[in-house]
Amino acid sequence: MLMQKLGVRAWLGILLLLLCTTTRAQTLDTLVVLYTGGAYGYLEACPCSKENLGGLARRFSVVNQTRATFGEKVVLVDAGNQFSAYPKSTAEAMLITKLMSQMRYNACNLAENDFTYGAHFTRTAFAELPTVSANLCDTAGTALTVPYRVVQAGHWRVGILGLLTESALSSATQTAQREVRLIAPLDALSHALDALLREEPDIIILLLRTQDIHYEKFLAEKFPQLSVIVSNSEDLITETPTQFGHCLALSAGPDGEYIGRLMLIFKGRERVAAHNERIALSPKIASDKSAQEMIQAFKHAQKRKPKP
Asked: Please, what's the largest Cα pairwise distance for the chain?
C-alpha cells in the first residue's frame, strides 16, 4: 500500500504543478494505463525473487486500488507471455487466465509462451479474455483473434493492438511453432492501423512481443500514430518512459514482479505530461482476498492429488 500511495502522491504533485502553470486548469484530464507482461506462469512470487516480489493476488490489489482512485479513466493491458516457456500444469494456466479475467483486462496480446500447451488450449484458456493480435493465425491462415480493440476510458477512445514477431516465436515450444503462423508484422500492423484509425481513437496503444533489438524505436518512428508501446523488452524497464518522438515505450519487467502505472495528463487533446511508475508487488501490498483464496484452494487441491 505504501508504494501505491507514493505513486498517487507523485501524480497529484504533477497535477498541482500543472494547475499553477495553466490558465485553463479545468481542461486538464488524466488517463491511467496499467500494464503488465512477461509473467511467465507465476501465480505467486517467483522463488527466484530475493525480495519476494510478484503474485496475481497482489497485482489484483493494485488494479482495484487504482480503479478506486481514478474510476473509469483506467485501462488495463498485457503485452503477452502469461504462461511459462515449458509445460507445467494446464490447471494452473487456466487459473491464471481466470484471475486475469476477473481483473477485467481491456486487452491482452498473445505471445509465444501463451501457446506452450498448444493452440487449442490457448483458445479455451483465453476464451474470456479480450485478446488482440494483428498477425497471429493458425496453419490454415485464419486469424486467432481480433487485431485490435477500442475501449472507452473516461473521455478517451483508446485503440489497442497486439503484435508478435518471428524473433519471439522462434523461441516457442515446437508445438507452438507447428500450430501458429505469423503474417509479416509490418504489413499486418499497417493494415490493422488503417482499420483502427477509421474508428477515430484518441490514443493508440501497441502491445508488443519481440526479441528484435530496438524494434520499439523502429515501430514508433515508422508508425507515428502510436501513442504508447508496451513491450517485454529489458531495455525499457525504467521509471521514466523511453520516448521516441511522441510515442512512449515501456516494460513492466519479467516474472510478474511489477505492474506498471502510466499516467497521461492532457490539456484538451494535447498530452502535456506523463508520469510512470513500476509498482513492486512486494509483501507490503496486501493480497486481494478473493484471489488469494482461489490460489490457496488450487494449491491445496494439487497437494491432495495422488502422485502418478
From this structure: 71
Closest by CA to 286, choosing from 54, 56, 58, 63, is 58
What is the Cα–Cα distance from 71 to 56, expressed in whole angstroms? 21
User: Cell numbers 508496451 label which residue?
Assistant: 230
Among all chains, which residue has been given the C-alpha cell 518512459?
Answer: 241
CA distance 202 to 300: 46
Helix (H) or strand (E) holding 15: helix 2-21
Per residue in 142-180, pLDDT tens?
A: 999 999 999 999 989 999 999 999 999 999 999 889 999
C-alpha distance from residue 290 to each of 55, 58, 199, 294 (Å): 13, 11, 37, 6
Report DSSP letters for 203-272, one per residue.
EEEEEEE--STTHHHHHHHH-TT--EEE---GGG--SSPEEETTEEEE---GGG-EEEEEEEEEETTEEE
153-to-105, 157, 292 alpha-carbon distances in Å: 13, 6, 28
- Burial grade of 147 (CB within 10 A; 0-12, 13-18, 19 or more): buried
| Distance in angstroms (rounded) separating the CA atoms of residues 97 and 87 | 15
Query: CA angle, 273 as apex, 271 and 274 as ends, to 5°?
Result: 105
Polymer length in residues for the chain: 308
**Three cell numbers at 26?**
479545468
The DSSP annotation for 126-173 comes to TTTS-EE-SSEEETTS-BSS-SEEEEEETTEEEEEEEEE-HHHHTTS-
306 by Cβ neighbours in 10 Å (0-12 / 13-18 / 19+) ranks as exposed
Q: Please write the tens of the pLDDT for every residue from 188-200.
A: 999 999 999 999 9
